[in-house]
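Case study.
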Amino acid sequence: MRQCRQCAAPAAIHMRQHRLAFCAAHFPAWVVKQTSRTIRSHRMFGHSERVLVAVSGGKDSLALWDVLLELGYQADGLYIDLGIDAGDAYSATSRHKAAAFAAARPDTRLIIVDIAACYGETLAEVARRKRDIQRPCAICGLIKRHEMNRVTLEEGYPVLATGHNLDDEAATLLGNVLYWQSGYLRRQWPVLPADETGLARKVKPFHRFYERETAAYALIRGIDYIHAECPHAVGASSIAHKQTLNQMEHAKPGTKMQFYINFLRAKKEGLFVPFEDEQITLNTCAQCGQSTTAEARCTFCRLWEV
Amino acid sequence: MNVVYREQSWQFDKPVKVTTLLRRIDVLPESVLVVRNGQLVAEDQTLEPDDEVKIVDVISGG
Ligand code: SF4
Ligand SMILES: [Zn+2]
Ligand SMILES: [Zn+2]
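After joint prediction, the assembly is written out as follows.
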C-alpha cells in the first residue's frame, strides 16, 4: 500500500506526477510549503503587503485564503455577488460559504460587492437586456474583472490573488492553443504586474497545484465549500478541455503539468514577444477611470447604459 | 459497501480496490477524490464491505 512520504501511514493522496504521497495529517503542510515557495519564486508579494483574495465560495479560492492565513499573510477576501439563481440559489449559497469561512476567522475581513445593489441589475438581467441569456459568461467575466480591479485599488490592496490551479491554467492554455489566440497566449502568466494605466497586480499562487490537490486540501482542512457548479458552467469548453487533459494525464502521469509548466518555461525563453512590448493605446474611462481600449467609456460602464 | 457519486449509488459486497471501483463505474481517478468513512484514501487502497464510500468531483469550470 502506498505510504506517506513523511510518516509511512497509508496515503490519503498520491500525486503520480510527483511520485509523492501523503497522509491526511501531512498533506496540508506540504501544500502550505509549496505555496510559500511559489509566492517567493515569482515574487508575488511580501509579508508586509496586504493581499486581497478573490473568493467564489469554491474549493480553490477558500483553500488559497486558508493557506495564505496559515502562512501569516494579511489576507482578506472579496466576494462578488452576481445574483445567479437558476432555481438553485447559486450565488446565495456560495456567498454564504465565503461568509461562514470569514466568520470563523476573526482576524480577516470579507468585502462583498452586490452587483444588483450597486448597478441595479443581476447578471441574468443584464444578460437578458443584452440578449446574451444563453451564455452570460463573457458578461460575467467582464463584471468580475472590472470589480476586482476596482475594489483592489479603492481599498488600497497592492495585490489581488486568485485561486486558479494548474488544471484551470492548462485548460485555458489548451483553448488558447487550439485557436491560436496569440494575444491571450502572450498574456497568460501567473503574475501580472500592476501598471500605470490603473491595473492592479494579479497573482495565482496555486498555479502549480492540480485541482485534485486543492480539493484534497479543502476536504482535509474541513473547509466547507460549494460543490455545485455555477448553472452557466454546464457545457463550458473549459470543462471539456479539463476532461481531455485528464484523459491524457491518466494515460501518462505528468502530461498536464508538462504542458503548462513547459509553456511557462518556453515563454521565459522567448517563445513569444512579451506583452509589455505590445503597442496598444489605452485610454482612461471617462466614467470609472479604469484603463480601456475604448475611446470614451469602458465596456463595463457601457454595459449599464440603457 | 455503499458508494455514492453525484446523484447515483452502488452496492458492492466484496472488498474492492479504489482503482477497480472507479474503472467499474467509469470514472477517471484524475477527476475525483475518494472518501471512505469520512477519510480521504489513495487509489491503491482496498475498500471493505462495511465501508461508506463517497466520490467527490474535483473538476470545476466556467
Ligand atoms: S460559469 Fe459563467 S456565469 Fe457562472 S460564474 Fe463562471 S463565468 Fe460566471
Ligand atoms: Zn504522514
Ligand atoms: Zn468605466
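Observations recorded in class. The mean pLDDT of chain A is 94. Residues A 4, 6-7, 9, 22-23, 25-26 surround zinc ion (ligand 2) (CB under 6 Å). We will return to this complex in the next lecture.
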